[in-house]
Amino acid sequence: MRDLDETDMEILSLLAENARRPFSEIGDVVGLSGPAVSDRVERLREAGIIEGFTIEVDRAQLRAGVPVLVRVELPTGSLEPARERVRDTDGVEHVFVTADGGLLFYARLEARNVRQWIETRFEGIETADYTVTLVDDVEWTPSVDGVEFALACAECGNTVDSEGETARIDGELYHFCCPSCLSRFEDRYRRLEERA
Predict the structure, then answer these.
(1) pTM higher than 0.85 for the full model?
(2) pLDDT (mean) for 154-166
(3) Is residue 170 within 8 Å of residue 192, measured between CB atoms?
(4) Residues 66-134, CATH architecture
(5) Average pLDDT rounded to a whole number, residues 162-170
(6) What are the pLDDT digits (tens) for 75-117?
(7) By three-state DSSP, how is residue 72 classified?
């Protein structure tokens, strides 16, 4: 896998601004044809750098409730069940886990009693405390500028650089830092297939 070049980074920046931008328009900016941009985007997707294309819905336009930022402090062992519960709740748009093990999420709540809404969501899950902050305005500006991408070797976890190897095994694309890691991975893969 070769390193990402300036054109790849520019394509990523343009897609981060507007994921629905036509490839021909991106090509005009970066000096490539639409099909060439499409090929690069597909390569970035196969490499796992682009995981998908999403939309950001302005729920205010849908009259879908009051925007709030909720921070929940959880005792050890409660984080995963709480995160799963929040992630699967309608109206919750972003879920974060803080470095100190707290849970933070942005939601639009239709409930008139926020305290009751939160207590209902966490019923059966122990919580230490929570705070709710009313959000006045939200701005989301994704950026890939200044970000370095590094692929990890599927065998040893080291960074894959321009001297690395790429292989498609059973339809899946894998990246390796060196030929010996590729060889070890393929050998282990064959042994596992033989046992199955």
Answers:
(1) no
(2) 82
(3) no
(4) 2-Layer Sandwich (3.30)
(5) 82
(6) 888 889 999 999 888 888 889 998 888 899 998 877 667 788 8
(7) strand
User: Which CATH class, in words, describes the domain spanning 1-55?
Assistant: mainly alpha
Helix 23-30 and helix 34-46, axial crossing angle in degrees, nearest 10: 100
Angle at 7 (CA atoms; ends 176, 19), nearest 5 degrees: 95
Check residue 3 and report its DSSP letter.
P
In the three-class reduction of DSSP (H, G, I as helix; E, B as strand; rest coil), residue 102 is classed as: coil
In the chain, where the domains are located: 1-55, 66-134, 150-196
CA distance 114 to 67: 11
Contact between residue 15 and residue 21 where contact means Cβ atoms under 8 Å apart: yes
Determine contact, residues 174/185, Cβ cutoff 8 Å. yes
Looking at this protein, which amino acid is placed at residue 84?
Answer: E
What span, in angstroms and rounded, lies between the C-alpha atoms of 146 and 138? Answer: 23
